[in-house]
Specification:
Number of strands: 5
Order of helices and strands: EHEHHHEHEHHEH
Number of helices: 8
Strand order of the largest sheet: 2-3-1-4-5
Shape: globular
CATH topology: Rossmann fold
Distance between the termini: 12 Å
Strand content: 5-15%
Bound molecules: adenosine-5'-diphosphate
Oligomer: single chain
Helix content: 55-70%
Amino acid sequence: MLNIILFGPPGSGKGTQAANLVEKYNLQHVSTGDLLREEKAKETPLGLQAQKFMDQGKLVPDEVVIGMISSKLDQMADKVKGFIFDGFPRTVAQAEALDKLMDLKNIQIASVLALDVSEEELVKRILKRGETSNRADDRDEDTIRQRVTEYENKTAPVATYYGEQNKLTRIAGEGTPEAIFDLLSEQMDGLVGA
Ligand code: ADP
């Protein structure tokens, strides 16, 4: 299996690039943001619990997202060529839990591709997405800045965690989507060939 984490702050282009990568490399996309929004739309207890955190730009509690990922791995690990995780892990506790879940299945993360984008560019992109995305958390600048703050405090340390495992590659995340996809593809081709 080839398992990749697409890493970066909110608005860095993970969702867009993950969609391109799953198509080119035939991998399974796992976005915790999408999974949580599905639960919210279905008004499940999990979705309702998550909603108040998401609307405030805060991270949903670790046990909720770890549970969701655990069942995804159980459902799909035997059926797919690999996973692209997008928006997960977002805390060091989530990264440790993912390592344990993968160990149980004798699989591992091959690489973490991290998109670097400045805060001003992030806020600009998310506000623009908010014009069409139907996401309340994309429309309010305070909520967006809260998400960036959560990223800096809780998620950025995840990069260090994978850096220590020599699995982190930083990619310049500003430029045209096509140029960024080329940079990501270069890394992916190296991994596929490895
Ligand atoms: P973005 O990358 O633009 O923030 P996402 O769809 O990845 O969009 O996430 C939207 C929201 O869903 C986050 O602000 C957070 O509340 C919640 N969320 C998504 N993934 C996680 C996660 N792994 N851990 C905790 N909360 C999460």
